[in-house]
Specification:
The complex is a heterodimer of chains A (177) and B (219). Chain A is mainly alpha-helical and 177 residues long. Chain A has seven helices and two strands; from the N terminus they run H-H-H-E-E-H-H-H-H. The longest helix of chain A has 23 residues. Chain B is mainly alpha-helical and 219 residues long. Chain B has two domains: 80 residues, no CATH class; 112 residues, no CATH class. Chain B is built from seven helices and five strands, in the order H-H-H-E-E-H-E-E-H-H-E-H. Chain B has a three-stranded antiparallel β-sheet with strand order 2-1-3. Chain B has a two-stranded parallel ribbon with strand order 4-5. In chain B, helix 4 packs across helix 5 and helix 4 runs parallel beside helix 7. The longest helix of chain B is centred in the N-terminal third of the chain and has 58 residues. Chain B is rod-shaped, with a radius of gyration of 36 Å. Classes of the chains: A mainly alpha (177), B mainly alpha (219). The interface between A and B is medium-sized, with 35 and 26 residues.
Chain lengths: 177, 219
């Protein structure tokens, strides 16, 4: 999917994304922030998706994920009273904000894991990869996938199972589980 | 969910048998901080999208349940408040119209020439100097009693006491006075009594009527 196509799609997706976010935050400012972040993530995903995918369903899932991330950032920041932080003059405890963003080590670990998953997905055969992503990204049911792809439901289920078992084995090996 | 349930769900996930909703539920379980290490691979496979969607739905559901609880609580308070108001108003009306005597108000008459208010069953309070016709009164027939009272007091309108939610008494009071009863456009006094109590009240009233009748006869 090229940039021009994505820009055209983004205009169509934006109202739905804003609605999902507004339902959650009941604030238009927050909804607009979510829409912006969602479209950025969508662009990264759509670079490797073809235009025939159900990007609307994907955009709703991404929007929900962004809403939760924002919600956690807003509500998990705490002001921690440092027991030893009295300033000495009037014994007033000193308030110190606690940073809840992931550490560099956690960020690196998450990136490595994402790389492992993407490599494992790429190692699947094209049909397995297509079905896996249709389920993983678009959240389609087995019936929906069967109708869209035109293969029997039992075959869809079997191929998704094979894809997942391959990924599971590869991940356990890389994670040394 | 128990650990056993989650492991069963993981097996079904790997077999491609789970629904998207079950996968969202699984994503929440394997993402817990106390989840076993061997579930990490499943968490990574399910991915951030499934987990994010599951958490979004979970938060929205909890908010909906909280709003519903607040609404039910508000409804309960509203109903309780309304009941309390009705009871206070009802008590006020009842106490305000009950007489000093032991017996409750059973009838209130209003006429152009004379206002005869039977606020207690005593002969002195029954007034109304109209033509009195001797008539034996059947104390068991409430409708006949009402007719006598009406005739004696020259009442144009008769407020009829009736037992609360007692259809028998209403029918007895309506009786032959069905039309008049229907014409009563003032609210009737509702007393909490059953048919036997009402008959007893009417019997006492009949005694008072008899006294008045005697007085007329002796004049």
């Amino acid at each position: 999917m090229n940039r021009l196509t994505f820009e055209h799609i983004a205009q169509r997706l934006r109202p739905r994304i804003v609605q999902v976010a507004y339902d959650f935050f009941e604030s238009m400012d927050d909804a607009e922030d979510v829409a912006q972040e969602t479209l950025v993530r969508m662009w990264r995903l759509c670079e490797r998706l073809d235009e025939n995918r159900n990007v609307e369903a994907l955009s709703v899932r991404v929007a929900k994920s962004v809403c939760v991330d924002m919600y956690r950032r807003q509500h998990l920041k705490v002001i921690r009273m440092d027991d030893n932080g009295c300033d000495g003059e009037d014994d007033t405890p000193k308030a110190q904000p606690t940073d809840t963003s992931p550490s560099p080590h956690e960020v690196l670990e998450a990136r490595e894991m994402q790389g492992v998953i993407e490599d494992a997905i790429q190692s699947l055969n094209p049909r397995e990869r297509q079905l896996f992503e249709m389920r993983q990204l678009e959240g389609l049911t087995t019936e929906d996938i069967s109708q869209q792809v035109g293969i029997p439901k039992a075959s869809v289920q079997s191929m998704i199972s094979m894809a997942r078992k391959k990924l599971f084995t590869e991940l356990k090996r890389k994670m040394s589980l | 969910m128990t650990t056993k349930d989650i492991n069963i769900l993981i097996d079904r996930y790997l077999a491609g048998e789970t629904t998207p909703e079950e996968e969202r539920q699984l994503a929440l379980e394997v993402a817990r901080e106390d989840a076993p290490t061997e579930w990490r691979a499943i968490a990574e496979m399910l991915g951030d999208l499934t987990l994010g969607e599951a958490m979004y739905d979970d938060i929205m559901q909890k908010r909906k349940e909280a709003r519903e609880r607040r609404r039910r609580m508000w409804m309960s308070w509203s109903v309780a408040s309304c009941v309390a108001v009705v009871m206070v108003v009802g008590a006020f009306l009842f106490c305000g119209n009950s007489g000093n005597d032991a017996l409750p108000l059973v009838a209130q008459a209003d006429s152009e020439n004379d206002v005869s208010q039977v606020d207690s069953v005593s002969a002195d309070t029954v007034a109304g100097k109209t033509d009195v016709q001797e008539k034996s009164v059947d104390t068991d027939d409430a409708s006949m009693m009402i007719k006598d009272i009406h005739r004696i007091t020259n009442a144009r309108r008769l407020y009829i006491a009736q037992a609360e939610e007692t259809d028998d008494v209403r029918e007895a009071v309506a009786g032959e006075y069905g039309d008049d009863y229907a014409e009563v456009d003032e609210p009737v006094m509702v007393l909490d009594m059953d048919l036997e109590e009402f008959r007893s009240c009417m019997a006492n009233l009949n005694e008072a009527v008899a006294v008045v009748r005697d007085d007329f006869d002796n004049e």
